[in-house]
Amino acid sequence: KNIIISSFLIILFTSSVMTQSKKDSSLCKNEIGINLIPAFKLLSSPHSINSYKNNIQYKRYLKKNFYLRLGFSIISDKFRNYYSSPVIMDDGQSMLSVSYYGYKTKPETVYNLGLEYKWGMRRLKYFAGIDFGYSYSEQSYTEYFGKRDKGIAIKTYNEYGESGFHQNNDSIVYSNTNIKNSVLFSPFFGMQFHFTKHWFFSMQTGVQAKYIFGKYTNIIGQYTNTVNRTYPINPVNYIQFDFDGSGFINNFSLCYKF
User: Fold this and answer.
1) Cβ 130 vs Cβ 115: under 8 Å
2) How far is CA 130 from CA 203, 234, 248, in A?
3) 216 with 238: CB under 8 angstroms?
4) Which pTM was predicted?
């Protein structure tokens, strides 16, 4: 009788282990997704390409519903290449004097590493966690002065700097550059809807705290009719704190698990 009971328990235990092993082996341990919000904005307004944020996210299952998150983001704005409309001054000579300013911004790059916990049902799941990240951005501002022939039509820049008014030989009156290296801390919460075995939508909201370590450099220009010289001033290092709610939903992604 004891042998029969022992044999039954061994078979039951072995069956349970094999079932769990099979279940674990069929678990999709990798997820990758891309944010769709920039695509929605581009369809609604072609000029939104000048101001966008997009990111790619990868997740790796660890154990007990915990996931490791890796992400890369690109953030750009409409000042990427922007020139103001010129101020035209007629001093009674054969040439017109013009002054204007311009912005040039490199897209901000963001790298993040985080931990996520997930729970829920087969189709609808929830997740929460923390991301830590690093970002780099660079922007320059320049004031220009130049001369134009009166007989040449003056072209003005629109909001996105698409016309050809700016000339490389215009004198620089004043310029500065602002370089930012930032450390990010981002708690988040989100939900997923799995509409097939491998494909699902993911929505996320959260806040972001940012410590910015910046370097601000001024350049003063002096010009004559033929010569333009610029003189840099010692850069100023600064530390700044920024807090961003990023809207109610800051990420709506199409994801694939494998």
Assistant:
1) yes
2) 15, 38, 17
3) yes
4) 0.74
